[in-house]
Amino acid sequence: MLLQKFFPACIVALVLPSLILSVPHGQDYPANNLVTRASLAKAELVHRFPLYYWVENLAVRASGEVLTTLLSPTADLYQIDPSKPAGSNVELVHTFEQATNATGIAEGAPDVFYVAAGNVSYPTGMGVAGSWAIYSADFRGCAKAQDATVEKVADIPKGLLLNGIDFLDAHKGTLLIADSQGEAIYSLNVHTKAFEVAINETQTQDTGLAINGIKVHHELHAKSSVYFSNSGKAALFKQRVNEDGTAAGSATVVYKSAPKAFNPDDFALDAQKNAYIANAATDNVVLHRAGSGTISNVTSVVGCTSAALGRSRKDVRERVLYISSSGGDDQYRVGDVTNPGGLYKVHV
């Protein structure tokens, strides 16, 4: 059965996690603390992939094109140009031949992106130790996306199921990596290849899928903050960090809710620390305004997995949010996949 070949139920349970939203730290809000809009903004399809294509994560180039990673059927990196008509706007950048799954993606130096890729064992649904690595994709000076130079940066032998990644310091090369199965945040210097376990504490751990998405917010005249979701805990946390990515104090709860109400995946964080979160429990992208203590539904996308704000002049002016989709996790659970993954956009 194709479902068993690409995504058995145990894999689905791992990869569509519970992410969390934000609220004054240290305060828990009830699951029904939701501000409902009169009507949801309609998400517009940018590109639809074939069946069994699970779009896991995305990042936006300064020129406006969107890079997407595939969790299924192969570990691919695609570029989608929203300015072009559907059907002629997608380009395969690279297939990571040594991996079966591609997950997190983040930009380091301008137009140089980094991707986490490795293997998940389909019989067990567990990440395969020793299979994970970080790769770079250099688009500088490329006329076509497929001309990007893709190289392995470093193997991550300690990695079990690498997920979200983000740069703490792109100039110094400090990349933070969330390991959902290893229940920790790693620090990798992409220049020197120096590696260490930066944070491993209760807030990054859980008995199921643990830490998931991760975003860095740089503070002026203060230590940077790392926001990360913990799927098993159904919570979003904020952690002040030192220059090397190690914890500066304890993580605080930004938002916590009931797992059945929120199963958020990855998220976008804007300059004001507002979070746009892919909530797989309701197939909605949800907005938490920093410090508001409330959440509102933004739009509905079946199988939403991640979000990223547009960067072209037009997208910035129109407040465009891009959303990746698996096509819907329930269809993989029941073995009847009829809706493909894709890329969507909405004005926020």
The strand order across the widest sheet is 1-24-23-22-21
Distance between the termini: 40 Å
Helix content: under 10%
Number of beta strands: 27
Structural class: mainly beta
Number of helices: 4
Low-confidence stretches: 1-32
3D shape = globular
Mind summarizing the main beta sheet? 5 strands, mixed
Radius of gyration: 18 Å
Helix and strand topology:
Layout: H1 2-6, H2 9-15, E1 34-35, E2 44-48, E3 54-60, E4 66-72, E5 76-80, E6 90-95, E7 101-107, E8 112-118, E9 120-121, E10 126-127, E11 133-138, E12 149-155, E13 162-169, E14 174-179, E15 184-189, E16 195-199, E17 211-217, E18 225-230, E19 235-240, E20 252-256, E21 264-269, E22 275-279, E23 284-288, E24 295-300, E25 304-309, H3 313-318, E26 320-325, H4 329-334, E27 342-347
Parallel strand pairs: 1-24
Antiparallel strand pairs: 2-27, 3-4, 4-5, 5-6, 7-8, 8-11, 9-10, 11-12, 13-14, 14-15, 15-16, 17-18, 18-19, 19-20, 21-22, 22-23, 23-24, 25-26, 26-27
Characterization of this structure:
The protein is mainly β and 348 residues long. It has four helices and 27 strands. It has helices at 2-6, 9-15, 313-318, 329-334; strands at residues 34-35, 44-48, 54-60, 66-72, 76-80, 90-95, 101-107, 112-118, 120-121, 126-127, 133-138, 149-155, 162-169, 174-179, 184-189, 195-199, 211-217, 225-230, 235-240, 252-256, 264-269, 275-279, 284-288, 295-300, 304-309, 320-325, 342-347. It has a five-stranded mixed beta sheet, with no helix packed on it. Strands 2-27-26-25 form a four-stranded antiparallel beta sheet. A four-stranded antiparallel beta sheet has the order 3-4-5-6, with no helix packed on it. A hairpin with a 3-residue loop joins strand 4 (66-72) and strand 5 (76-80). The chain is globular. The chain starts with a helix and ends with a strand. The model is unreliable at 1-32 (pLDDT under 50).
